[in-house]
Design goal:
single chain; Spore Coat Polysaccharide Biosynthesis Protein SpsA, Chain A; 2 domains; undecaprenyl-phosphate 4-deoxy-4-formamido-L-arabinose transferase activity; Glycosyltransferase_2; Glyco_trans_2-like; transmembrane helix
Length: about 300
């Protein structure tokens, strides 16, 4: 078999209802390119029929590859495992839920062939709830400010990477990471294009509110120390303000004398500062926790077995 020119990477977790429709649309697109390709699925510890359906496809789809995880390690670990096994000159990530049309893939390949090494995407007419769209907008703006990156849509996983960028990502051994942002740090000539977006085919989103918050913490603390610097600056400003407030209270006592008014105001100010301190401790704890995860040197994921690879 010829070496693949394009590798399609698809993480899958409980996607039994989407796999057949996905392959029915993905295979004609890839075969229409007229170039050798491979499709790498990573089963992220699915508890439904996802794994058995993918195994059943292997005999009839020679381009299909399958990685079985020993448990649920998360979307980004599933992508990283497939990156290490991929061999294409162009590597494209794609979700299995059909929200990003496979028919957009040739456009991403064309951008890489123009000389770009990372092709990001922006979801056009996004078919998500108002809450998810608003939260995504806030995260995009905040992350760009904190990391200095220029990405319009961090949440869209339909992206293309040149082999050089993928190789650099494979050399990283971080316990937690956010692949689009990590790729951006290695990109010399990135670009973005608008792509279509559809409602999820079957099943539910795997990102609960907690997992979205967790992912965004990984994104902000994994690629920047700006949150720590902002907290240090806030501490300095708070200290200066508290000294000024103490001087004001001392002068007021000399002028007006002892008084008990304003006790509740002082409590409110005290609680506000205590809240800032607790937030800061949590922020420092986030960085310390990441250090703790790294120094343990535990494997990022465990592969039970692989299928379809030579």
């Amino acid at each position: 078999m010829d070496k693949p020119y394009v590798s399609i990477v698809v993480p899958a977790y409980n996607e039994e209802g989407n796999l057949n429709p996905l392959m029915e649309r993905l295979l004609p697109v890839m075969r229409g390119l007229g170039k050798p390709f491979e499709i790498i699925f990573t089963d992220d510890g699915s508890r439904d029929r996802t794994l058995s359906i993918l195994k059943g496809m292997l005999p009839s789809v020679p381009e299909l590859r399958l990685i079985e995880f020993n448990g649920n390690f998360g979307q980004h670990m599933a992508i990283l495992a497939a990156f290490e096994k991929s061999s294409g000159e162009i590597v494209i990530t794609l979700d299995a839920d059909l929200q990003n049309p496979p028919e957009e893939i040739p456009r991403l390949i064309a951008e890489i062939e123009k000389g770009h090494d990372v092709v990001g995407t922006i979801r056009l007419k996004r078919q998500d709830t108002f809450f998810r769209k608003a939260a995504s907008r806030v995260v995009n703006i905040t992350t760009n400010k904190m990391t200095g990156m220029k990405m319009s849509d961090y949440g869209c996983m339909l992206r293309a990477y040149h082999r050089d960028v993928v190789d650099n990502i494979n050399h990283c051994q971080e316990t937690t990471t956010f692949i689009p942002a990590l790729a951006q740090t290695f990109a010399a000539n990135p670009t973005e294009i608008e792509v279509g977006h559809a409602e999820r085919g079957e099943g539910e989103s795997k990102y609960s509110l907690y997992r979205l918050i967790r992912l965004n913490f990984d994104l902000m603390t994994g690629f920047s120390v700006v949150p720590l610097q902002l907290f240090a600056l806030m501490g300095i400003l708070t200290s200066v303000a508290s000294v000024g407030f103490a001087v004001f209270l001392m002068i007021r006592r000399f002028i007006i004398g002892a008084e008990v008014e304003g006790v509740f105001t002082l409590f409110a100010i005290l609680f506000f500062f205590i809240g800032i301190v607790i937030f800061g401790i949590g922020l420092v704890g986030e960085y310390v926790g990441r250090i703790y995860q790294e120094v343990r040197k535990r494997p990022r994921y465990v592969v039970r077995r692989v299928h379809g690879f030579q």
